[in-house]
Design a protein that fits this description.
- This protein is mostly beta strands and 381 residues long.
- The chain has a single domain, classed as Beta Barrel (Porin), CATH 2.40.160.10.
- The protein has 6 helices and 16 strands.
- It has a 16-stranded antiparallel β-barrel with strand order 1-2-3-4-5-6-7-8-9-10-11-12-13-14-15-16.
- A hairpin with a 6-residue loop joins β9 and β10.
């Protein structure tokens, strides 16, 4: 335990010294800290991708180091090009060190994200959003784009296009078990439409999409339905914020048996319960439990997934973080579970810059345990 603490502390100190020597998520925990909804900081009512003016201002007021204000205050960035057109972007570069099965170590710099956003307010009620991602080597990104009608009574909105279905806690770590194994993040954008509302503390939305693992032209007439509902409860002066919610999706599809060539009926059901708790604007607890059923012609595989996160804001722009992940892809058999424990932190030295370092300890039922390291440099605007 002492070695783990020393290693993690060294990673954080390295990150701090790195940023001091240079001229230099859309995260659910920010919602828990502040008691704000996702739509308060983002163009999309379900959060993620492009930030609005309030979201940019939140980063300036609540994230960057106080003693570096004099550098950021020299430029007052405004995402609005004019009264109707706004821009934004995210760029992430990761350094990953992961041992493989033959005791060698994968050490690589990975371009995880390169997205540029444009949002056009056609009128007070209609806007068009386009996100163009940079294609990664051997991997084609799925750009997100949609038209949206919003600001209706009860904060009702409707959007149609290609975007990520809203399921569970939308954490930025696409390698998290409940993200990767459920909707295939980070390339999970799907064509369809979504209807939702955010009256008062409540949020509800439901969407219909082509479905998981479909090509650009979907020849399967069966469609995926995704629904999400949650309620945010805020105590006096934001000393305690509690968000409780649930998500569900049903993805029916035709499965072609590779042995017989026959087409079989298949579907995937998934259900989640989640919570986001913010305490005294300095502590956040995130939790999610997911149940999954994969069925092919009556043959069922039941999976169980879990996620937990603790965030502690030490000072403005410096956070410590711990995570726990669990997955059991088939609850009816043994020897297939995996658990991942992560410890690390994040720093936000300047508006538009984040550095995150995480040390991960992975325990498997079916192979040797692993120790991973991931460092993430994130530029955003």
């Amino acid at each position: 335990m002492k070695n783990i603490f020393v290693t993690t502390l060294a990673i954080l100190i390295f990150g701090i010294l790195y940023f001091l020597s240079e001229d230099t998520f859309s995260y659910p925990r920010f919602s828990a800290y502040s008691g704000d909804k996702c739509t308060d900081c983002h163009v999309s009512p379900t959060g993620g991708l492009m930030r609005n003016f309030y979201g940019i201002n939140y980063a300036k007021e609540n994230l960057q180091w106080k003693f570096l204000d004099k550098y950021s205050n020299k430029v007052n960035f405004d995402p609005k090009l004019n009264k109707t057109i706004s821009i934004g972007g995210d760029l992430r570069i990761a350094n990953v060190n992961v041992p493989d099965s033959v005791k060698k170590t994968l050490s690589s710099f990975l371009p995880m994200q390169g997205d540029f956003y444009v949002n056009v307010n056609v009128s007070d009620f209609v806007n068009i959003f386009v996100s163009q991602g940079v294609d990664l080597p051997t991997l084609n990104t799925k750009p997100e784009f949609y038209g949206m009608i919003s600001k209706l009574p009860a904060n009702l909105y409707f959007k149609a296009g290609r975007f990520t279905p809203n399921y569970g806690i939308n954490i930025p770590e696409h390698r998290a078990y409940q993200r990767f194994d459920f909707l295939g993040t980070p390339y999970s954008a799907d064509a369809g439409f979504e209807l939702g509302m955010t009256p008062g503390p409540l949020t509800f939305n439901v969407g219909i999409f082509n479905g998981v693992n479909t090509d650009f032209f979907d020849t399967d007439r069966k469609k995926m339905i995704v629904a999400n509902a949650d309620v945010m409860l805020i105590a006096k002066q934001d000393k305690l914020n509690i968000d409780i919610g649930s998500s569900f999706y049903n993805n029916p599809f035709d499965y072609r048996d590779p042995l017989t060539g026959n087409t079989l009926n298949a579907f995937t059901h998934a259900f989640s319960g989640f919570t986001k708790i913010g305490i005294l604007n300095h502590i956040v607890l995130l939790g999610e439990a997911d149940f999954k059923e994969d069925v092919i012609e009556g043959s069922m595989t039941r999976g169980l997934y879990g996620f937990g996160e603790l965030d502690i804001k030490l000072i403005k722009g410096l956070e410590l973080r711990g995570q726990y992940e669990y997955k059991d892809p088939n609850r009816d058999i043994g020897n297939d579970r995996a658990m991942r424990y992560s410890i690390g932190g994040a720093i936000f030295p300047l508006v538009g810059v984040e550095f995150e370092a995480m040390l991960r300890f992975v325990n498997y039922d079916y192979t040797n345990n692993l120790t991973e390291y991931q460092g993430m440099l994130h530029f955003y605007f």
